[in-house]
Design brief:
The structure is a single chain. It is built from 1 helix and 15 strands. It is mainly β. Strands 2-8-7-4-5 form a 5-stranded mixed sheet, with no helix packed on it. Strands 11-10-13-14 form a 4-stranded antiparallel sheet, with no helix packed on it. A 3-stranded antiparallel sheet has the order 1-3-6, with no helix packed on it.
């Protein structure tokens, strides 16, 4: 049974955003998923969700799915494609759904097109063993090392702060100037074992 607009306004609709890459490259097409769930359990198939920019202008819209997202109860979803803003920086846009008059902000970062490819090779200090699943951060850019200890980031030239982190290892950070395609070797030290306290 369809809800009237008056009924729908009494419902609370929660919105979710996921699968949005970060950062986005200015002016290039981007995609993200938007989900909507009604507190009253309404079927939201074909209800529209929209993306609005900071001025309120509609950037994209799509109808929600025929069924809920797998593993959820009542989270209807859609994938929306939109052009990233032409200006680099931090942007706060919003997603909306007329059902329940729902609106939710989301924030993302846009950057200049990449000019160079940076490869970070991460090894354990001492053993020289390659380290997989290491989190690598270079300013707003993120990557994770593969089984051979390599992480790759494409980015514009500039000065960055490189941070490398893995559970069980000491944090590593250094300043880095990227002027060309390059490879950087990083060695990280296992954290020392905590001292054992003995009680008499």
């Amino acid at each position: 049974m369809a809800d009237s607009n008056a009924d729908a306004e009494q419902h609370t609709t929660s919105l979710a955003v996921w699968d949005l890459a970060s950062p986005l490259v200015i002016s290039r097409p981007a995609k993200m998923k938007v989900g909507a769930k009604c507190s009253a359990g309404c079927q939201l198939t074909d209800h529209e969700v929209e993306i609005h920019d900071q001025s309120g202008a509609r950037i994209a819209r799509a109808g929600l799915s025929s069924g809920p997202w797998p593993g959820t109860s009542g989270l209807y979803w859609a994938e929306l494609e939109f052009p990233a803003p032409a200006l680099a920086g931090t942007h706060t846009w919003s997603v909306t759904c007329a059902h329940g008059n729902a609106s939710s902000p989301f924030t993302f970062i846009t950057v200049q097109p990449p000019e160079h490819s940076l490869t970070i090779r991460v090894r354990e200090k001492g053993t020289q063993a390659p380290l997989p699943d290491v989190e690598v951060r270079l300013g707003v850019y993120r990557a994770s090392s593969d089984q051979r200890g390599f992480a790759k980031i494409e980015l514009p030239k500039g000065s960055y702060s490189l941070s490398v982190w893995k559970v069980g290892y000491e944090n590593f950070s250094t300043a880095l100037d990227v002027t060309d395609t390059m490879t950087v070797d990083v060695e990280i030290q296992p954290e020392p074992e905590p001292e054992q306290k003995y009680w008499m």
